[in-house]
Amino acid sequence: xxxxxxxxxxxxxxxxxxxxxxxxxxxxxxxxxxxxxxxxxxxxxxxxxxxxxxxxxxxxxxxxxxxxxxxxxxxxxxxxxxxxxxxxxxxxxxxxxxxxxxxxxxxxxxxxxxxxxxxxxxxxxxxxxxxxxxxxxxxxxxxxxxxxxxxxxxxxxxxxxxxxxxxxxxxxxxxxxxxxxxxxxxxxxxxxxxxxxxxxxxxxxxxxxxxxxxxxxxxxxxxxxxxxxxxxxxxxxxx
Length: 239
Ligand SMILES: [Fe+2]
Ligand SMILES: [Fe+2]
Prior knowledge:
Radius of gyration: 16 Å
Bound molecules: fe (ii) ion
Distance between the termini: 38 Å
Strand content: 25-35%
Helix content: 25-40%
Number of strands: 14
Largest sheet: 7 strands, mixed
Order of helices and strands: EEEEHEHHEHEEEEEEHHEEH
């Protein structure tokens, strides 16, 4: 069964923990005039995630389904969600739309570019292309201006079944997780590129106060220093 927790006003973390991987898979639901879901989860998780979302809103009223990059945990269950939400519009980066989503999605996909804004009522989502951060040519992140929430996908990945929201430093747990990943079959998880530092600086300049993390606890507090510190973690582990 998935858990659902409000990590900021009207922003809910929907969490499915997979003990075999010691890993949480989190989607984020934003309750607003036009409800938005960030990440769809994998197809096999859909019944549990839908039931959890249904504790907060009628899933049929979803209007926006957004993801960072083309992977099963990010958008695998897209068509399942579109099947229950007739007015939902999928949205990802223009690169993601052109190279993957147009072929995969049963409904037209909105291709977003730098500076695009998606408004859902009280919430305003700024779209930030971040190629190869966390990974994937098509990668992008969302920043919600009203709550200063950064939806940061795989950044700050932590193992274990931690609490929904923490104010503790994420750098220790995410460093341990990156080192663990680098030792196993999924090595090379987050590439360190010439653009990594600049992209993390751009995210830090937004001064987020909530980090909506896909794998592990979300964070509340001053996040800019963590984003800058993440640069040295990634450089050390992956370059
Ligand atoms: Fe990913
Ligand atoms: Fe992920």
